[in-house]
Amino acid sequence: QDPFVAFHLDKALVRKYMSPLLIGELAPDQPSFEPSKNKKLVEDFRELRATVEKMGFLNPNRTFFILCLCHILVLDIAAWLTIWYFGASTVPFLISAVLLGTVQAQAGWLQHDFGHLSVFSTSKWNHWVHKFVIGHLKGAPASWWNHLHFQHHAKPNCFRKDPDINMHPLFFALGKALSVELGVQKKKYMPYNHQHKYFFIIGPPALVPLYFQWYIFYFVVQRKKWADMAWMLTFYIRFFLSYLPLLGVKGVLGLFLLVRFIESMWFVWVTQMNHIPMHIDYDKNVDWFSTQLQATCNVHQSLFNDWFSGHLNFQIEHHLFPTMPRHNYWKVAPLVKSLCAKHGIEYQCKPLLTAFADIVHSLKDSGELWLDAYLHK
Fold first, then answer.
1. Domain containing 215: what range?
2. Which of 226, 319, 321, 366 is the most buried (most CB within 10 A)?
3. Does residue 209 belong to any structural domain of this protein?
4. Is residue 56 part of a domain?
5. Which H or E run includes 6?
6. Is the pLDDT of residue 32 over 70?
């Protein structure tokens, strides 16, 4: 029930499409809660959800999102004007690349808002604008993001269910339990005891330009998502038509790769700081609140942190209420902290640089656990 309520705006519409899947009702003598779930915590969270709805925290301020879009468009135009006015020498080129990298990062946070149905009251409008932002402003398919991201939200940090941790075990050993299991099984796809070092090579710099960039095209062709392909092509056509006359073929390709590199660095550090240092294991089928809290942590609030991370520094609140507009996360945070304190659940919040460092520390720790199990167990 809790994931269903969390993900959907129009519950009645979704129930209509789900009705053919109904098998039957539980017999009166059957428990309504699974033994792996904390009944009191579930009830308290549902009460919190009702309070959140009553206080209007799920209602968006559309002016906020209009300003987000406008600042992205202004930066995009400024990047082009920089090269057009100052020429294609090194300094204007680099300034333009940084501006465009910022555009890509901020457009990433904005498409995330629409993808989560956080801006409009109907799913239809959110989906349409989502296609524009992720397709035309970023050159990626909305269907690809939806396919992966909602799996992540349903079971964060659950191995074989959360696609965001699919790099285990091929590239990284993640989580204490999974790393020990890998070592006991004598499996070694990479030198995991050095993963906190090679993370700086195959992680932040490479994810977007060397993996996402080609995989998104494979995804849309394989699944025949031609509408998404059309949206994506508008981005690439616009980018190359805008910069090709100013930079030439080599210059525009260099700019494109540099922008993807900047975007990748930004994206990986921000998205992984909330999850990689947290509990990673197989799905234990615990309640919604516990599932999200054990897999997420927050980063301290500040104007810069809010902007830099697209308010994903409030990762806990975002995971508990995925359709909540991000400008309201700070309002609900005290209520979430109170519920955590009541049930003895840790609510982690840390400085930004500490969160970055914890990614590396957690990789080092899990790599050492793997090595010990690999050699001695």
1. 62-154+191-272
2. 366
3. yes
4. no
5. helix 2-7
6. no
Distance CA 354, CA 121 (A): 37
Q: What are phi and psi of 121, to 5 degrees?
A: -80, -15
Element (H, E) at 299: strand 298-299
Residue 38's pLDDT is 86
Is 235 within a domain? Answer: yes
DSSP 8-state secondary structure symbol assigned to residue 56: T
Please give the single-letter amino acid code of residue 151: Q
- Quote the tokens at residue 120: 């409009």
303 part of a folded domain: no
Question: Cis ω on the peptide bond leading into residue 169 (within 30° of 0)?
Answer: yes
Beta bridge partners of 298: 349
pLDDT recorded at residue 9: 87
pLDDT exceeds cutoff 90 at 321: yes
- 349 beta partners: 298
Distances (CA, A) of 303 to 210, 310, 327: 32, 10, 12
Please tell me the predicted confidence (pLDDT) of residue 48. Answer: 97
Sole residue written with tokens 């919190």: 48
Averaged pLDDT for residues 161-179: 96
Provide CB contacts within 8 A for 204, sequence distance 6+. Answer: 264, 265, 268, 269
Name the β-bridge partners of 281.
158
Type of residue at 205: P
Provide the angle, in degrees to the nearest 10, between the axes of the packed helices 123-130 and 90-115: 160
Q: Which residues, in sequence order, are CB contacts of 9 under 8 Å at separation 6+?
A: 117, 121, 122, 123, 323
Its pTM stands at 0.94
Rounded Cα distance, 279 and 259, in Å: 32
Number of independent structural domains in the chain: 1
